[in-house]
Amino acid sequence: MSDARILERGYRRYDGPRLGHAHAVRSVIAHTLRRILGLRRPARTKVLPVMSIAFAYLPAIVFVGVIAVLGRFGAKTQARTFVPRYSEYYGFIVSALVLFVAFVAPEALCPDRRSRVLSLYLASPLTRMTYLLSKAAAVFIVLLAVTVGPPLLLLLGLMSQSAGPDGPVAVLQVLLQILAAGVFLATLFTALSMGVASLTDRRAVAAAATVFLVIGAGVVAGTLVFALHGSEGFVVIAIVRSALELVRHIFGDRGELRGVGTPALIVGNLAWTLATAAIAVVRYRRLQVTR
Amino acid sequence: MVAIVRAEGVVKRWGSTEALKGASFEIGSGVTGLLGANGAGKTTLLGLILGMHRPDGGRLEVLGRDPWTLGPEVRARVGYAPEHDCLPDDVRAHDVVRHFAEVHGLPKAEAQTRASDALWEVGLGEERFRAVGTMSTGQRQRVKLALAIAYDPEVVLLDEPTNGLDPVQRDEMLALIRKVGHELGIDVILSSHLLEEVERVSDSVVIVSDGVIARSGSLDDLRGVADAELLVRVDGPGDAPAVLADAIAKKGTKVRVDGTTGLVVVTVADDAVYDVVRDTIADLGLGLRRLERRRATLEEVYLEADSAHV
């Protein structure tokens, strides 16, 4: 006798709990994270996120590896000089960030408008702003993994090789600096990504626009400072340079730009963050979904 | 009647265009057709019901709540399948339905199960793990319907759900809509410009014409409101229909003879007309072969309502 059974798959009413707005937000964050990272999607969609994350983590792994290998041969001190300072490490991270923001992060916003899934989201308990915040949160979480993870790995790796900061206070200080720098960079580049991606529903256009914006801002700042002999303060216009300079200040290092103080750098970076975030907010407030 | 939607003088403007000019109506349980030509204001009305737009005037209640001020609360209990394609191509049907069930407040495990059940219900049980982009137009429309019912809403709004479907797919979709409204116990508001499909599945109709609610009510009542007529066929000499029509007309009742069918067509002003017809036929000594009340089609109701507002 067969074990086969016919299952009644009839539609049932649902009288259980409805978990509300916060649950909807969490669900969109989780869904967007999967989408950004290419999970449950074709293999080709995983290439760029994996590449961006690898670019950020690989140097840390290499540096710790070098210390470990040279340490075995009693050349730990020489090896330590080979490893960059924490603030210098962000040079590697910013490349991965720009790659991520240009080619991966637009995945959070652009396809929803292109395939018009947005109309389904706005017909759900989400509002325009909670939808946008959920998307920004997902991008921020991934960026945080890129901005905090690698320096943290470097710190832990160096500590495991007895080449880290001396004493718990110094370790805690570096840890806090890593967190502050990571949160700052993730916030800036999340806003940048949302601002650019809110203006187009095509990922390729968003990627090109992001690269253009990052390079263009650098060119404008360079022209103002060097070609037109303007104030060195105009350097804050250059997104990447200004962000890296502020990171140096967070780690208490002497920056490359002697004429630009921490307040100016904070104002410059804050201006970029708020301006690009405002673009996204205004754009989504005015977006016509159905009429 | 328990009102799912209640509107009183609702006005909505888009710039200088007045999309709704004081709409007043009530939508009760069952399947309700929202009928009107393209651009009549149907989609605007659906947007207002979902709380996506703020009315410029009047009062609107959905499930007893103001959808503009209590939008998230209302939308958690309303299903929606838009007119346009709105599904991501590279995501599996089950994943997208499950995700939106979660967004509407269902716990993860429940959303998982109900996504499968809803897809089975619309006939996509075997196809539920296929990417939406590999599906036909008919299948994608079914996914949209599954998505709209998966979280067990109290009412589901379907905007032109048969768009792009061939006749067979259309019949199947209409059967599904009837099933949702009558077997699954979810009230349906079906927005369409196609009279025939609204007539086939709806219990009630709201006719929107140029931003105005031209008619609303149960289908039976609306058909009765339009000029109902009595079709009479009599046995007798060749001029019997004309003789009968003359005799009825002399009693003050509007009547004509259909030259093609030979039927005497009497306008039913009130129930007394039946007595007039019966007595006249008896007085003339004619044989009565057929006496049938012809009800107006929805098309006639619509055209009459539409012309009254042009």
Protein architecture, described:
- The complex is a heterodimer of chains A (291) and B (310).
- Chain A has 291 residues and is mainly α.
- In chain A, 71% of the residues lie in helices and 0% in strands.
- In chain A, helix 1 (20-37) crosses helix 7 (128-147), helix 2 (44-72) packs parallel to helix 8 and helix 9 runs antiparallel to helix 11.
- The mean pLDDT of chain A is 89.
- In chain B, helix 3 runs parallel beside helix 5.
- Chain B has helices at 42-49, 71-75, 93-103, 108-121, 137-149, 167-182, 195-201, 219-225, 240-250, 272-284, 298-308; strands spanning 5-14, 17-27, 31-35, 57-62, 78-81, 155-159, 187-192, 204-209, 212-218, 229-235, 255-257, 264-267, 287-294.
- In chain B, strand 1 (5-14) and strand 2 (17-27) form a beta hairpin.
- Chain B has 310 residues and is α/β, with parallel strands linked by helices.
- Chain B has a 6-stranded mixed sheet with strand order 5-6-7-3-8-9, with helices on both faces. In chain B, strands 11-12-10-13 form a 4-stranded antiparallel sheet, with helices on one face. Chain B has a 3-stranded antiparallel sheet with strand order 2-1-4, with helices on one face.
- The mean pLDDT of chain B is 89.
Short description:
By secondary structure, chain A is an all-alpha fold.
Shape of chain B: elongated
| Protein structure class of chain A | mainly alpha
Task: Give a short account of the largest sheet of chain B.
Answer: 6 strands, mixed
Helical amount of chain B: 25-40%
Q: What is the helix fraction of residues of chain A, given as a range?
A: over 70%
**Gap from first CA to last CA of chain A:** 59 Å
Using only CA atoms, what is the Rg of chain B? 24 Å
Shape of chain A: globular
Radius of gyration of chain A: 23 Å
Strand and helix order of chain B: EEEHEHEHHHEHEHEEHEHEEHEH
Low-confidence stretches of chain A: none
Largest sheet, spatial ordering of strands of chain B: 5-6-7-3-8-9
Number of helices, where a helix is a run of at least 4 consecutive DSSP H or I residues of chain B: 11
